[in-house]
Amino acid sequence: MKIPFARAFAAVILGLLVGLPSLSAQKGADVPSARKGARGGTGAPACVWKIEGEKNTVYLAGSMHLLREGDLPLPRQYMRAFKDSDRLVFEIAPGDENSPKAARLSLEKGTYSDGKTLPDEISEDAYKEVGRFLEHAGMPAGSFDKFRPWMCAMTVTMVEMMKIGAMPQFGVEQILQELAEAEGKEIAGLETLEFQLDLFGGMERKLQERMLVESVREAETIAEEFPKMVEAWRIADEEAFEESAFEDKDDPEVKAFYEVILYGRNRDWIGKIVNLLEGDENVMVVVGAGHLMGEGSVVELLREKGYKIAQLKARGKRGKTAPDSDGKPAPKPDAKPKSKKRDLVPVGVPTVEP
């Protein structure tokens, strides 16, 4: 079973659906189970790593943008990293993606305004696939005609995710955002919403059509595959996560998709993370789990630069912490890599006072 695009969406598209009110995150939703403790037995790994700078610590935390309520609470390592951090950095600062301006931008980028419609942009066979999905979902024919192919594909995937209870309000970002606001911790973003929208909009039409067709064809498999992805994320099982989320990586079109959505962004983030390591404050960087595991990941790229990165282990029942593992050891450089100073992209989210 191979659904590379449909699976990849689960890890990257949440922040790109704010223009669809019925699918956007319910800010402030009650997620009490997230605050009743945390999972993770003694010595259990999680998708959280730490890097020691000269004066600070930077944590890298892998996110699942959507989770089910039963998937909570988060592994305890997330709370350890959060408590030890002075500020948090997300892919997009949460306030940026929830603003009225963001909703307008998403509609502007993801829908047609020049008189074209979806059947004008995709093949007849592909449009028939969309029609069958709409009929099966009990939605009127032509419901997606104003959506561009990539936005249509995202909508299909999100609808199916929400059918199984996977919601933004249970996702890692939403939980950490609420905790950060409650404690007055500063929040920033690595990218802007417009940048992420343009990644999809800039893809070749043929690739967008394939994204849409595969998402429609494999929509019903999400109920079976999503729990596997969550379990692999929870214990940072790189092999299982890659098998569940990233298939057909040798396919030229799929490879191009991952280069745009995953690998290129990973490389772009390295300089920003190195800059954070040159600061004085502890920082928790929260990005999609797929960015931190496997070939070409942020963790791998930083190790290649010589940074020693330790994966956090869970605390024992008596409060003791199992030794953190550095996974693939790499000597810490004698001198920190030189990099041009680049500020994080401002996203208009001020520090929330306690």
Give a written overview of the molecule:
There is one protein chain. This protein is α/β, with parallel strands linked by helices and about 350 residues long. It has one domain (about 5-315). The chain contains 14 helices and six strands. Strands 4-3-5-2-1-6 form a six-stranded mixed sheet. A hairpin with a 4-residue loop joins strand 1 and strand 2 (about 55-65). The protein is globular and about 60 Å long. Mean pLDDT is about 80; it is low at about 15-30, about 30-35 and about 330-354.
Structure summarized in a few sentences:
By secondary structure, the chain is of the alpha/beta class.
Task: Using brief descriptors, characterize the structure shown.
single chain; 354 residues; alpha/beta; 43% helix; 10% strand
